[in-house]
Amino acid sequence: MKYLCLTLCLMVSLAAQAYNDHRNARVDSLEAALNSSNPPKGDDLLRAYDELMRGYLNYDAAKAADYGRKALALSYKQNGLYVRQNVLRLFAQMHYGREEYGEAAALYRQALAVVDTMATMKRYTEEDIDDARSVIYGSLGNLYNMQDQGHLAIHYYQQALPIFEKHDWRESQTILYYNIGELYAQMGNYDEAERNYLKAIGKAEAAADSLMMTLPKKGLAGVYFDTARHAKALQAANEALAYYRPHRKEEPQDFAYTLASKARILLMEGHEDVAAAKACVEEALPYIDSAEVMFDDAAEIYMAACEVAMAEHHWQQALGYALQSVHPDSAATVADRGGYMLLAEIYTELGQKANARACMQKAIGLMNRYATDHYQSGLSQMEVLYETEKKEVRIAQLASEQRHWRWLLALAVALLLAAIALMVYFQLAHRRQKALLAARVALQTEAKERHILARELHDSLGGMLSLLRIKSLTPDPTPKGEGSEYLKLLDATIEELRRVAHHLMPEELLRGGLVPALRDFARSVPGAAFQAYGDIRLDRERELTLYRCAYELVNNALKYAEASRIDIQLMQTAREVTLTVGDDGKGMADAKGMGLQNIRERTEAFRGTLRVLTSPNEGTEINVTLPL
User: Fold this and answer.
1) How far is CA 508 from the centre of its chain?
2) pLDDT by residue (tens digit) across 82-126?
3) What is the pTM (predicted TM-score) of this model?
4) Cα–Cα–Cα angle for 312, 245, 210, rounded to 5 degrees
5) To the nearest 5 percent, what fractions of the chain are helix, strand and coil?
6) Cβ distance 203 to 177 under 8 Å?
7) SS3 227
8) SS3 59
């Protein structure tokens, strides 16, 4: 979100190109004309009010609002739709500046409805309509971006992109692709983040914009770091630094942040270069005192410095850096979870058990809060999109009906053709509504899975943390060190946290795909074996679906079937892929339980099939087949 202002300034400039300072001759001359003996009238007066509102917008909000109200009232008398949508958008921008986001969103949508009406009239050119619509879409994207509502922001950015592409507005495309990449990276969707960053670089190269080539490279360094692609991460960071180093006075925040990112890349497991990482940190640390470096970026620098100190076993120095990387307890955010994990590790090395336990609990609490808030926010945004899609279908339907009625009045002989067109339209609208309902079913399935994950966190990690608390309050008969019961239990707690996080989004699945992830999962389950047949190549959605089906089926076999051996098989043919999980347990009494219902809903989302073969005391075999 830190470059949101770039997009906002771009959007404003499209509609206010005449203004390049706070008060210029154009504003003065317009006010003089209004007070003259022959003031402008009709459309000329409407345009004057519109320009005066824009002219005063940046330095006299009261005057801007006054001229805006006059322009809005006159637009209804003159039927001036272009000015009306522009004034509504500028009023929305004023609410946006005051962080009154609900009022701003409502006004942006009113402006969009006016543009929809403009599109039905011949007196407005295609470029005027596209310009107005793209500005509103971009403004709505900025609005939701600022509120951390990524799904809605991406939706509106993607609405603006086709317009920018049609008119070859390269700078606008570059900024939106970069913003979309940032949002996907925040969501953990690294494939889409990388794809949009690369598109932003391509558009920036075509526009010869060196700054906008650098921003997505900085983002790519983070994506490659998070997905353990060391060489690509280091290359992207070096390319970003090649621009920021000679421009460090103009871009001190980005220069220091990129140095910290490079330091952490240089400390990646298997590629450690502590001396080079330390040099990056020493160059970045002085920039923390700059007024332009925000806390979140300063925290990244402190964390990089902490990791360098840890690599050198300077634990007290590492502790100082780690403490500066987190907010105070009352203001802690999900971004602090990494700092608290580092603190837990440092306190463990220093033998401070109570502090280590407290930091681990804070990290787990922030992760739980993030998982809940992220899911609830995503669900809310999907519901808004669902309602928006229905409204758009209805608006399109009404516009279509209006056009058809005009043709019916003029050409009675076209009645049959119009009826056929309406039938086709309603059929398509019905299909689209069914697809939206299917999306809601998928969201409900995710809600059930979140419930299961929350139960695992409570039952396993909750119990372990309670036991840790009891252990910390009683004397430890084992000497401090590697053999301490407390440290063993702390290690077990960390391992359990990794297991739960692995189910949420297994790293092996992101790095190597489904086959290595299932093989790794089978190794972690006593009595389980995995085999794969065929050249298995699937998209990310099918891989994640099959992995979670396997995870749930194996857990069911262990918990309820009392199985001692579990066989997991994956087979792909030219037309389909099949996951088979068989066990030697006591069989299933109910083949319609909640666990199987979740798997059945996941399977049906891909038009796949679920087959269950079970007999009392003779084991169970379950086949999940997805078409390709």
Assistant:
1) 21
2) 999 999 999 999 998 888 988 999 999 999 999 999 988 888 998
3) 0.54
4) 135
5) 75, 5, 20
6) yes
7) coil
8) coil
pLDDT tens column, 213-248:
899 999 999 999 989 999 999 999 999 999 999 998
Greater confidence (16 vs 417) lies with: 417
CA atoms of 616 and 618, how far apart (whole Å): 5
Q: Which fold has domain 506-627?
A: Heat Shock Protein 90 (3.30.565)
CA distances, 542 to each of 434, 578, 606 (Å): 21, 11, 8
Alpha helices in 513-593 (DSSP H): 514-523, 540-559
What is the side-by-side order of every strand in the sheet holding 566-572?
528-533, 566-572, 576-583, 620-627, 609-614
- Is the pLDDT at 597 greater than 90? The verdict is no
Q: Residue 426 pLDDT > 80, yes or no? A: no
* H or E, element range at 469: helix 462-473
Place of tokens 């958008």: 89
| CA distances from residue 305 to 311, 312, 329, 583 in whole angstroms, order as listed | 10, 11, 22, 50
- Rounded to a whole number of angstroms, the CA Rg of the chain reads 30
User: Out of 1.25.40.10, 2.30.30.370, 3.90.930.12, 3.40.50.10490, which CATH number does the structure's domain 1-167 have?
Assistant: 1.25.40.10
- The tokens 């295609």 sit on which residue? 126
